[in-house]
Design brief:
The chain contains 19 helices and 12 strands. The protein has 485 residues and is of the alpha+beta class. Strands 8-7-6-11-12 form a 5-stranded mixed sheet, with helices on both faces. The protein is elongated and about 95 Å long.
Length: 485
């Protein structure tokens, strides 16, 4: 083995000399600096592979004697060494080593060579897996694989990248439970939870595709969407404002000064998926996790708990079940959307009259006069004798305000400094779901979508490196026992 390592070292020295000669000759050949960079990087990858092979050669062949202890019994060294593939960031290695089992044809139970090197369960190195999946959470699997090929001259397939993504996501929930809550000293005064839903385009089941054939029937959609429920938990300091402050911000685009920033914002998403043979609703999974997170971050309930959402009744039902102490606040921007739609039923779009219509009624809502706004809209309908689509638009806004009236006490919320806009949830839906899951042509299975949502949330929360280390430690312990972690 020492001779094998020396051969690799000699090869590395020759490669290093060739590398130096390349640099010496680059100037004479008139190469641009970027051409030198590319040439250097390609040669450094070759050198890295040789040195990695030298390290492997030093580790022996895994022969630890005729027998080894396994769990409650002994295993024997199999007669012929076995090979396995190892794909590193420098290139591919073939590892040959002895392994141990009860007898030929039985499951390998010990591989001292693998244990010594801490080899992963798959063929891909932990470093390569880390780098590739950082790309996958931002780009399509095919694009990520192409980028890796361009950078490292490695070519894992898009399908391999997708399978790796699903495998990597398996310990996410355990990681989130093990990580614990932020330090209380780092938290702000108000605890906020917010939730929303975003559709994910799903692959049609195989039997449905076989039944319908390559062409869709009349009225049949190319794909169906399944809801991903997106939630966020964070703390924030009070932000005292008046109705005029809010109107200036949302209508006149004047950014509020000294707006507090969310602290330790954590976002994630849940799909409806199977659990113990039964469907586990994504909405319930999300709110259960938010309730646990809120309890961990404020076990003594010293902070006011605010729940910010739009008007979806199902979300508020879940809030009452899982977070009953929360102060429910209807997102002001959804309220404002309805108000603008009503304004355009009476005034031209973008007109000063429409803006004044909205400003007047928004002020009333912010002052807690929801009933006055509802009554006024009804009288306007009668006075203008609205019909058709315009009438339906105004009626929908009235019903929306009536159904959510308990969550529209904006005068109280502003006086307490509570947030009244769910921009965090809206942003999470866009960044976590839409920006990755709804690109052209993308279709997902539930398992694949949930894996991507898990990993993308880890990445967006800033926990990627911590999660990767946790994942390596847990896999090493599972493969080789507690001492390997």
């Amino acid at each position: 083995m020492i001779m094998a390592q020396e051969r690799e070292f000699l090869k590395a020295q020759a490669q290093l000399s060739a590398l130096c000669e390349f640099v010496r000759g680059a100037g004479e050949d008139g190469l641009r600096i970027d051409e030198v960079e590319r040439g250097l990087f390609a040669r450094l990858l070759e050198l890295g592979l040789t040195l990695l092979q030298a390290f492997v050669a030093e580790q022996g062949d895994g022969d630890a004697g005729e027998t080894l202890p396994a769990e409650n019994h002994e295993v024997r060294r199999l007669e012929e060494p076995r090979t396995r593939r190892y794909l590193s960031i420098f290139g591919e290695l073939t590892l040959t080593r002895f392994v141990y089992a009860e007898r030929e044809g039985q499951k390998v139970e010990r591989a001292p060579f693998d244990e010594r090197l801490g080899l992963p369960a798959s063929d891909f190195s932990y470093v390569l897996e880390d780098w590739l999946q950082r790309m996958c959470v931002k780009d399509s699997f095919a694009e990520a694989a192409t980028s890796l090929r361009t950078l490292l001259n490695l070519a894992p397939s898009a399908r391999a990248a997708e399978a790796m993504n699903q495998r990597l996501a398996e310990p996410v929930e355990a990681f989130r439970q093990a990580r614990g809550a932020p330090s209380p000293e780092e938290e702000a005064e108000i605890l906020v939870v917010t939730a929303d839903g975003k559709g994910v385009p799903m692959r049609r089941p195989l039997e449905e595709r076989a039944r319908s054939g390559p062409r869709r029937g009349k009225g049949e959609k190319a794909n169906k969407k399944q809801m991903a429920y997106v939630g966020a938990v964070y703390t924030i300091d009070p932000f005292l404002r008046t109705a005029d402050d809010v109107i200036d911000e949302v209508l006149r685009r004047e950014r509020a000064a000294e707006r507090p920033a969310p602290c330790h914002k954590e976002v994630w998403a849940e799909m409806t998926r199977g659990a113990d043979g039964e469907p586990s609703p994504g909405k319930d999974r999300l709110f259960a996790q938010m309730a646990i997170n809120a309890q961990e971050r404020d076990a003594e309930r010293r902070r006011p708990l605010v729940c910010l959402m739009d008007g979806e009744a199902g979300l508020w039902d879940a809030q009452r079940e899982w977070l009953p102490r929360a102060i429910g606040i209807l997102d002001l921007f959804h309220v404002l959307e309805r108000l603008w739609a009503v304004a355009y039923c009476f005034h031209p779009e973008q007109s000063p009259q429409a803006q004044e219509f909205v400003a007047h009624r928004l002020r009333m809502l912010l002052e807690g006069k929801v009933g006055y706004v509802i009554g006024g809209l009804r009288r306007l309908c009668d006075r203008h004798d609205l019909r058709g689509e315009k009438w339906r638009t105004v009626e929908a806004a009235i019903r929306y305000y009536e159904n959510n009236r308990d969550h529209m006490r904006y005068d109280e919320y502003l006086a307490a400094g509570y947030p009244i806009g769910s921009g965090v949830a809206e942003g999470a839906c866009r960044h976590l779901v839409k920006d990755r899951m709804e690109r052209t042509g993308m279709r997902w299975t539930v398992h694949g979508a949930q894996a991507m949502l898990h990993l993308r949330a880890i990445y967006l929360n800033g926990d990627w490196q911590q999660f990767v280390e946790y994942r390596i430690e847990t896999e090493q312990e599972a493969l080789y026992g507690p001492s390997a972690a």
